[in-house]
Q: What sequence folds into this?
């Protein structure tokens, strides 16, 4: 039975990962910035799983002292941490780079870059001390240079930087008892997509159009990711749910399919 810590895990992909790890008989530590979010998620997860395998912690990934406390509470509860996943992330609203408020720049950069760096630092130190462990960082739009989405320069910047960080981390961990990997879930329908909406109905319709072609639901993506993570023993693994071939196939089939992920309809 493995012990898993997932940041930003009270909703969306993080929550889906928690559910899938629990179904795989793992112990899971979830966290969020608010006690309300943590308590609600723990209650929902405990409805179908043993409550003694779930720990909820209030943690802001942007604050290193709270990230350290997350590690300490996980170890206090379960003895050690086998897998740590830096999933906490936020997106900017669709906007030209020069129109994004400075406060929003701080929030996105601090969460997506500093949060992943703080989480990795705390986890690597703890895992080196215990003699084993695996760390995974959640990549996204910007991790692949070939795909540029207008209005998402800030979010893409942070994920491009995270890609460089991951590649560096792989090299720095070579020969050590700790491994690192990267997760690329592709476009997943979560409330993060709604948060990106600029307020312009035309913008949101464009987001919906592309999402209904290449997007996926959390419940489809997270079990696949968890299976890959639990089976992996290789440093530097990068798990990509949507391959180039699969994406191209989706576009070819788009005129003949009725996919509406926003209304919970999916005909394939």
A:
């Amino acid at each position: 039975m493995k012990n898993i810590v997932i940041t930003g895990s009270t909703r969306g992909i993080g929550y889906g990962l928690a559910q899938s790890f629990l179904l795989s008989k793992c112990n899971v530590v979830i966290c969020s910035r608010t006690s309300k979010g943590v308590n609600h998620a723990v209650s929902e997860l405990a409805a179908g799983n043993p409550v003694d395998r779930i720990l909820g912690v209030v943690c802001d990934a942007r604050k290193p002292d709270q990230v350290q406390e997350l590690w300490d509470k996980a170890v206090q509860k379960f003895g050690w941490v086998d897998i740590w996943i830096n999933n906490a992330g936020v997106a900017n609203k669709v906007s030209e780079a020069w129109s994004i408020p400075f406060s929003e720049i701080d929030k996105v950069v601090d969460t997506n870059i500093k949060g992943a760096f703080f989480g990795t630092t705390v986890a690597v130190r703890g895992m080196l001390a215990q003699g084993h462990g695996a760390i995974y960082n959640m990549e996204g739009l910007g991790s692949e240079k070939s795909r540029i989405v207008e209005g998402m320069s800030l979010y893409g910047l942070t994920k491009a930087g995270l890609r460089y960080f991951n590649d560096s981390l792989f090299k720095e961990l070579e020969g050590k008892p700790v491994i690192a990997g990267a997760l690329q879930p592709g476009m997943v329908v979560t409330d993060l997509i709604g948060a990106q909406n600029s307020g312009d109905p035309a913008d949101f319709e464009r987001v919906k159009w592309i999402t209904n072609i290449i997007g996926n639901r959390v419940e489809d993506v997270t079990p696949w990711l968890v299976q890959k993570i639990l089976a992996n023993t290789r440093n530097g693994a990068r798990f990509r749910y949507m391959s180039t071939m699969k994406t191209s196939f989706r576009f070819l089939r788009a005129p003949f399919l009725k996919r509406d992920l926003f209304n919970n309809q999916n005909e394939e």
Summary: The chain has one domain: 3-191+217-246.
